[in-house]
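## Example pair
The file below holds two records. Each record gives the amino-acid sequence first, followed by its structure token line.
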Amino acid sequence: MSESDEGKQFGYIMELIEKGKVTIKNIERELICPACKELFTHPLILPCQHSICHKCVKEILFFTLEDSFTDAGSESSNQSSPRIRIHSPSMDRIERVARSGWKRNSLTPRTTIFPCPGCRNDIDLGERGINGLFRNFTLETIVERYRQAARAATAIMCDLCKPPPQESTKSCMDCSASYCNECFKIHHPWGTVKAQHEYVGPTTNFRPKILMCPEHEMERVNMYCEICRRPVCHLCKLGGSHANHKVTTMSSAYKTLKEKLSKDIDYLISKESQVKGQISELSLLMKETQCNGERAKEEASHNFDKLFDVLQERRSSALRAIDASKNLRLEKLQTQIEEYQGLLENNGLVGYAQEVLKETDQSCFVQTAKQLHVRIQKATESLKSFRPAAQASFEDFVLDTAKQEETLGDLSFYSSGLDVPEINEEQSRMYNKALISWEQPGKAELADTYILEYRKLNREEENAMWQETEVCNRSKVISDLDNNSSYAFRVRGYKGSICSPWSREVILHTPPAPVYSFLFDDKCGYNQERLVLNARRNSVESRAGFPLLLGAERIQVGCYVTLDYIIGDTGITKGKHFWAFRVESYSYLVKVGVASSAKIQEWFHNPRDVTSPRYEQDSGHDSGSEDTCFESSQPFTLVTLGMKKFFIPKAPTAPKDSANRILPMPSCIGICLDYDKGKVGFYDADHMKCLYERQVDCSGTMYPAFALMGSAGIHLEEAITAKYLEYPDDV
């Protein structure tokens, strides 16, 4: 087949690929020769493990050497072979070739040195030259399967028919020829040796059945050198260049390499969603780079227009600089997207590797798999340490037009001075909504606007899409977040066309259930002498009261004070709810939890004489007895807080050592009641971490319950709103 016919066939194949008619898809990048940019033809494996067409090796070698003794930079040297697309050799390479002793008129150079089209490294083939290279049969087979996918309209004709030839129906691997049915019967009659020949479907790829050693042409490779990482024959091991090298059997090398390659391919396939997410992120980054580049151009044009007469030349220069930077970044990002697309299943590198795994010949597989395994490992490392190839910010392309006219000749880009904003984790909080606040550190100029981005952290989807919102101040309320979920937040500042880098990501957790809103009840059982409510009824404090002070003369020993209860003004009869509150650090003893309406009536309608010594707090007749009632579900559950500690109630699952049941009191405490399942949990609301959980009898209406003793204070967590209501703060 002539070179022009081959080019037409390749063009037809590529046309079928674009129309989606080829069955082997998305791996064409791996099947293209880096020199001629066409499908491989008789590919050879170079010492650097890249493959290249046999014809291309000869052309590159001799044209490179020819150019080394002519003008290295002349255009005519590059036009001598339209098939090859390589750079001109460097002067140091020319000198090395000249020192190797090659003569201009000799057909075979003593030392063959040429640049690899794939990695641009110098390749020295040694004295054997091209004859010392392995033929990549695995790659050749994959290319042939690729070609066959496009041969629905390009039939292989019989090689022995008289004109006009008939379409072939089979090809003989021993005869290296294709036959129609009639010619096959004539040339392979029954009862002859040829009748035992191996035949396949119509093909033009007649590869040898076995892989032979390039140094000992009559010997078959049957071992694998672990030092040189290539197949060798027994003569290479006995007295050749691999005599002192460690070798292993071909079957062992085949098994080891196939297991490693399969494992790494499975890992990449399992990370397909991550690769797609990173490709999407790169695509968005490209759009953002495009947008910011255009905005930078517009602002630069506006500034130059103010002084157009004297700045025309500098304006053109600056716009070219912006375009060059933008195009360079877009090119890098596009290249990175193409590289990552090769990591998808049935695409590029992974698709090529999957085709290699179909190779059953151990020798052919081993010679191809090692270099492929190295590429797979590099792709895996790149996936783990993902980083965009270019930044979208154009902060170095802002023009300073404040200088005097005589200094315009030195006009240049200057930095915007925008520092990275920092999200204030103390001021940011998550409750019924998310309130995110940030600061601009240092004395840098404040941004005009900010972009706040957030995304849900989902184990099933490692790279969820970012959602963004534009903010004109330095705080934002985010609504419609899912319960019992984690969200990542980040922010960046914009001033004109310039943007700062992204802030450090901050992760916040939403409550395990919808937030339940209520206020303290100032009617049911509320003791005005010992409990004080603020006007908004969201804060309560306890005080001793006059009855206790008047009866203090009779107090000698023991505890003569009781718990004062207060409940929420709204009950719960179904569903799952969450509420949070803060307990003052000075509080002596506070009990918090839930209680049924019947239990609350019992507490409020059995008043106790706090001045009477007949009532003992530790006698088991008070509300503290719930700690011993863990065997059965009770219509109430309270936990004890005080002296900056959180006390886990006694239970079979609780630690036996009392010291292990004492935790530091969180600054914000949350309670989650699942009425339908009869379960209540106590949380560190700042981190949404469950500290204690138990069953509770929800047979009636359940109320948030609180009890205070001694000096103590409780403040209900306020719901996050876009605008806070004003209340008088007097008591």
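Second record, same layout:
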Amino acid sequence: MAKAKGKDAAKQAEKKARKAGKQEKKSTQKEKKQSKKGKEDDSDAEDADLDAILAEYRKQQEQFLKVTETLCEPPSPRSSATLVASPSNNNDLFLFGGEYYNGALASFYSDLYIYKITQDTWRKVTSPNSPLPRSGHAMCQGGNAGGLYVFGGEFSSPKQGTFYHYNDFWRLEPSTREWTKLDGKGGPPARSGHRMTYFKNYIVLFGGFQDTSQQTRYLQDVWLYDTQRFSWHEAKLPPASMRPDARSSFSLLPHESGAVLYGGYSRVKVSMSAAKASKGGKLGSRVTMKPVVHQDTWYLRITPPVAEAAVGTLPTVRWERRKRPVNTPNPARAGATMAYHKGRGICFGGVRDVEESEEGIDSDFFNQLFAFNIERNRFFALSLRRLRTAGKKAGGAAAERGKRGRGRTDEEELLRNLALIEGKGLGDVEMPDADQAPEVGDGDEISDKVEKPVAWEMPHPRFNAQLAVQDDTLYVYGGIFEKGDREYNFDEMWAIDLGRLDGCKEIFRREIDDWQGSEDEESDDDEEDDGSEDDEDEEEDDQPSAPAQPADTVEPEEEDTPTITDKLPHPRPFETLRDFFTRTSKDWQDDVLEWMKYQRDIEHSSIKDLRKKAFERAERKWWDCREEVQALEDEQEAAGISEVVALDQRGGGSTGEGGAGKRR
């Protein structure tokens, strides 16, 4: 027994000595890092002249005599850029700006890249008149005005000792690639980390932050830019009305009545009592900056002035706080800004800081995909789904032709009714054409694309990835992942079909190997892993508890999926959007005709407008129910059912209600 006790005591002494040695080594490395960082920052702050650096960039731009577009390789790695779908066609994605940090120096970009989806090629645009290098800016589509708009952003010296915030405002014409600098007089102050969206003929801007050498100030002001009058104005909110807290890195989505805000990040001052007592024996206090991950949702209601209003009348603006969304991503996360897609916000990734100490911040990174249904105020988790291999049954083609034939007959009858309502003769009616091919941008040809690799798992966890949706496909570009002191800027882009969710298609992917910063913390982690087995007994007693969630990040109770109670047609499992509209086009056109009875400009409506409005409503319904229908598809596939077809649509099938029909 004494011998066993002696061995245990020796083992404990050896553990303590090893741990003390590690702590001493860590302290030495930390002092070296802080000393090195301080020298670099001082040198950068003294030597860097931002005005001279930006003037040199302007001189370089003046060398370009006209707008040119050249074939190129995919963009170099960067973060805090903007990726936006072209509003003029369904073939282009625009990538602008961004920054890259390699551990020693930061580089900022003013490049404009265009990804041609159908050709699978990248183009680089150079122009004598374009925004200066920046990151953290906001870029959005122009709504009724068309085009793309850019405001603000930041620029820093190479070693990030000094910062500069922009307050300039630009418009990009997607078809000609030409930049136009707009008059920013009376507009928002300089900032970065803000967001913009569109509403009718307005550009809506909210939030962001201003970073100085002393502090970071978060903003909560609302600005509207009138694209018809070419003027900014700050929204005047009702006195004593509720409004969102100041924040950055949130989601701002377009809505038919204004805009919808969700989430964001900020740091707030918190006074905390010090653990040590002062010499007089009284407890002291200190002020710290506490990070806050917001999970609240707001409507920004914008009411344009009536037609009879005097010239210069401004729209009325007010905030309305919504209930907490159902099924919010858990745990709360930052760096997961959404991309808008047909009444939904699509978000990917994010980061959560789980522990902050003198040694640094430990973080969890995510690669989950969610769809936020704006009207239902509900999140749906999206998972990849392998393609079904079951083929169509015999007679399926004949049934499909019969179904489309019946749909065409119903549509012709409806169009004749519309012609009678409008007072037209049947000879003036434009009958429906055959199915048309999808539109392709001017000068673009669909080339024979090389088959891209497809992964059956989501891309690597990350935060601040650039997202854009074009033609029902989500594109994920870049993003950041941290390990120890190293920061990884992903040099890749992925595509996910939001309708099928049939894997992640790799657009391009390159490895990054030019990190020049310190990796001391990473080596410390490796050393700690080597001794983890010896310290296992002690760690069992000292396991850290889960971090407490802030008051505004408590998860709501689960609610049952709301039942669809409207009388409009509902998509069936395994039914494509095209099949859904073919089956229900008569119902949607009836719905449009009923709505048109109460409109003043019915005499100006055309058959083409009727079909377009009917399809838009069917499409909105199909996407609104997409997550619920996919859940039904998964359940039925698990039960061995891979196709659901109504009896009245089976080729040669009976439509009666006999016993056999009921059993099926």
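Notes on the second record: The two ends are 77 Å apart (CA to CA). Residues 2-47 form the longest helix (46 residues).
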